[in-house]
Amino acid sequence: MGGHDEPAASGSFAERYDATLVPVIFRPWARELVRRIAPKDGDRILDLACGTGAVGREICASGIEPGVLIGADISEDMLQVARSRASEAGIKAEYLRASADDLPFPDHSFDVVFCQQALQFFPDRAAALHELKRVLVPGGRAAFCVSRKLELNPLLKAQAATLDRYASTDAGNAVRAICAFDDAQIMRRLFEDADMTEIEIESVTLTLSHPDGRAFAQGAMGGMHTGDKMSRMSAESRNESIEHFMTGLGDCFDGKGITFPHVSYVVTARA
Q1: For 190-235, how does the pLDDT look when each residue is reduced to its tens digit (9 = 90+)?
Q2: What are the Methyltransferase type domain coordinates in residue numbering (predicted)?
Q3: How many domains does the chain have?
């Protein structure tokens, strides 16, 4: 089982997350959301629960020049990485700490709001969606994506099982929480109750890949909040956990690379 005896990736959780998980998972979903809304030059855009800024970078990579681009997140560590990556890319954006259910913006501040893989974590989803409605201009557009159940997402299922065994049940449950909001009817009702219109909810599958499955597995577990615990393992235990992850992927692992479906609900709506 040689070939991955080096320590887990160094750096902060947010840096590990951005280096490993964003290119493989969050950038493709950012691209999908941007494709569906197709923002225009001059649009005032909010990236809600922005993480390390994948959506904003994808918007600018598409050639769009927003009038305003703001990312909001509760994690200052994530925001620091977002600011750094935006600066490196020459992107004019503001990143600020804010909770989705208490946004520090005047009414009708934005033409477009994006939110990827975060609605499932909001403590008060109803309040967050009422804030979404408030900060959008009338007719403004929103696009969200939310991972579907674990059984449809083999990479997350394998990761949860590996963390259960080699980190803790709490660590495995942190992955399960990603897939815990798999009810399209409740989701639709939340948007309706916030007076959003033209609500469309679609189950979307992206086929994602990485050429080195073991390298990704090591980075993915380091890109969780349990990364520090995983990094303290002996090389033997860490290698064993990575092999457990690979075995759990089944046919998604070809002995070297991984190719796997990632299934989410995509929600689009208007204010």
Answers
A1: 999 999 999 999 999 999 999 999 999 988 876 655 555 566 777 8
A2: 46-144
A3: 1
